[in-house]
Amino acid sequence: MFRTTILSAILLIFSLSTFSQGSDSLSIKKDMDYATPQKYIVGGVTITGLRFLDAQTLVNLFGVDEGETIMVPGDAISKGIKKLWKQGLFSDINVVVVNVVGDTAFFNIDLVERPRVSNIAYTGVKKSEQESLKEKMTLRVGDQLTEYLLSNASNTIKKFYGEKGYRNVSIALDQANDTVIANGVRVTFNVDRKKKVKISEINIDGNVAISDGKLRRKMKKTHRKDWNIFKSAKFVAASYEDDKENIITYYNEKGYRDAKIVSDSIYNVNEKRIGINIKVYEGPKYYFRNISWVGNTKYPAEFLSAVLKMKKGDVYDKTLLEKRLSTDENSVSTLYMDDGYLFFNIEPTEVRVENDSIDLEMRIYEGKQATINNVIIVGNTKTNEHVIRREVWTKPGELFSKSDIMRTNRELAQLGHFDPEKMNVIPMPNQADGTVDLKYILEEKPNDQLEVSGGWGANMFVGTIGIRFTNFSARRIFEKGAWRPVPSGDSQSLSLRAQTNGSYYKAYSLSFVEPWLGGKRPTSLSVSLYHTVQNNSSYLYQSSSQYMKVSGVSVGIGRRLKKPDNYFTLQNELNFQNYNLSNWNGFLFNDGNANIISLKTTFGRNSVDQPIYPRRGSNFSISVQATPPYSLFNNKDYTDKTMPGSERYKFIEYHKWSFRSQYYSQLAGDLVLATNMQFGYLGYYNRDLGYSPFEGFDLGGDGMSGYNLYGKETVGLRGYENGSLTPYNLEKGIRVGNIFNKFSAEIRYPLVLSPSSTIYALTFIEGGNAWYNFTDFSPFTIKRSAGIGLRLFLPMLGQLGIDWGYGFDEVKNSPSAGGSHFHFVIGMPF
């Protein structure tokens, strides 16, 4: 019927411009009539032109199978070509009828593959920026090169620099065939950032009730260029959109419920500066009038109104209303959810708007009380589950409580084993049976700490090395495979520490804490041992007949109290110290022993939300440490000046009082105000015996004197030299403080909050002083200072920091004590 000789083909081009810039075609035999398509049986489909792709896969994708009857020309060929174009892999596609035998046609698909990206390079981009930029790019080595990918890559670069304030970035694209890799193209983005564009002026129009300045201050990240060098003036589109919302939110807080931004525009002032015009509509200011409650059966309307703390005549503040209803710790929602009403919902509805007054109807759906069914814990890869569950306040069978969930998060954060920024809890309610499953999601973080530090004290440098395992497990000591590097998982604490200056001074300590003695109640057991040696040897290995050795042991029992509330704790600690002196000059006596047996009781309350970067809560303690009053019953005459020092101080006696308080307040976002107050007093029983030669206070500096000679408590006060605020006792020829106070306030802002590190900046004001006698005590006669600082917390090393402080007040007999000083910080302060 058709002649078998191959005649010249007639080119038929299908319009597929939406998929490619190349061409696609069907070449058919001359005696095939394009105007009258006919049916053919597909004898076979072959593919030519491929270099890297699989031919059979593309034949299957083409969708025209051998033995299938199709129309030529027809939809089957057209749809097959479209499918190939959609892959974005080809720059040209041609379908050719290569032979016809009777009513059977044979087809070949001739393809031209797009080149592949063999290398991506940048010019005009800093090395420090390239890694960040590569992470954002969707174009990768090995991708087939398309105009879409190139355009998307260029837009990514422009957006990347736009967020840094470069709004006029230009990009020139170079493509070069790779001479090494077949079908490879080397792509280079030549980036010209041009000048960084900053905001010259922000003009606000239409505002009458609120000034331009107040509205500009509500724009958190969009600022005009002015004298404030700490305030960025770069323009970032996303931040600008957020800041427009901030303006409207501020208007809403002031009662302007209808406020909106009518229009805004950005214009060029010059190549380095832009200006912003914002036009607002304020509308009238509204006030609350009548607030009614509907649907409440659990609590009466009067009680709910008292919890809401909003009344007739108050400014209509939608933000404050949302807080009082839902987000505050003492909100109406929290009130219900603490009593099991998980399915509670409240919808404030404006039922009447008249002039400047609004009537609200609080429409409440209480639902049924929900009971906790399962408590699920995930993410603890190191800490044993029983350690977590004993800190969980939401127990199966109990009513759902929002406050108990918040308390659980706080207690888990206090363990220090999990990243508080990643902790989460997901309630999974089942309304059918009125139960809820709680899923606590945790992420372990390393918190064992290695200390390697140095300090200066008593005119010598002292080096320290120590290690603290904060998630130790004593019960797994003999367990095979548990030493990685030590047995862990039970939240016990084991610390080892050593200090030395080489030969003169050596100190060793070991401490162990079990936070849940017996595993059933939050009763802690703490044990510590320490030994200090000072001698006049010249070498580390050398012994000496002149020495002072101090050995001690303490055992403490602490428990969590239920009253006045369950944040209170009570700690009792029994201490024993022995001072052994041999031919030791410069002390109260040269030979003999002095012993200290004391009992210390500490009553405290700690509601701080987390230990590393706390945002809210308080931590205070009051403690009394006392020895028996030996002088009242040993019949010794302490007025006898000939009494040997070893006899006078054989058993040391004193009573020591301490008070410490911290308070954290979240100012805005993660900006935190931390205040601190400390007080200490060392008293005596016998006036003739006087103050104890031990357990005094040393005030001033960074609080790291290197080591402790005679049991003195070192208290830092920035802006002054170490120990410079401790009064000098002429009679004894030493600095000794028996009473002190200290006040400080810090404003902190985090720079990094992650499991691997926490970094925050701070500014502080501080004041304090120390006195020898209680009769000299003047609590408001303090030495003042101020400064700035930086803190870095690394799980392996603990907290490190540096402060610059300036002491404003002159110190008697020490003119250089104040002024400008840098201080280094190691460890967590109280």
From TrEMBL:
<dbReference type="GO" id="GO:0071709">
    <property type="term" value="P:membrane assembly"/>
</dbReference>
<dbReference type="Pfam" id="PF01103">
    <property type="entry name" value="Omp85"/>
</dbReference>
<dbReference type="InterPro" id="IPR039910">
    <property type="entry name" value="D15-like"/>
</dbReference>
<keyword id="KW-1134">Transmembrane beta strand</keyword>
<dbReference type="InterPro" id="IPR010827">
    <property type="entry name" value="BamA/TamA_POTRA"/>
</dbReference>
<feature type="domain" description="POTRA">
    <location>
        <begin position="370"/>
        <end position="445"/>
    </location>
</feature>
<keyword id="KW-0812">Transmembrane</keyword>
<dbReference type="Pfam" id="PF07244">
    <property type="entry name" value="POTRA"/>
</dbReference>
<protein>
    <recommendedName>
        <fullName>Outer membrane protein assembly factor BamA</fullName>
    </recommendedName>
</protein>
<keyword id="KW-0998">Cell outer membrane</keyword>
<dbReference type="InterPro" id="IPR023707">
    <property type="entry name" value="OM_assembly_BamA"/>
</dbReference>
<keyword id="KW-0677">Repeat</keyword>
<dbReference type="GO" id="GO:0009279">
    <property type="term" value="C:cell outer membrane"/>
</dbReference>
<dbReference type="InterPro" id="IPR034746">
    <property type="entry name" value="POTRA"/>
</dbReference>
<keyword id="KW-0472">Membrane</keyword>
<keyword id="KW-0732">Signal</keyword>
<feature type="signal peptide">
    <location>
        <begin position="1"/>
        <end position="22"/>
    </location>
</feature>
<dbReference type="InterPro" id="IPR000184">
    <property type="entry name" value="Bac_surfAg_D15"/>
</dbReference>
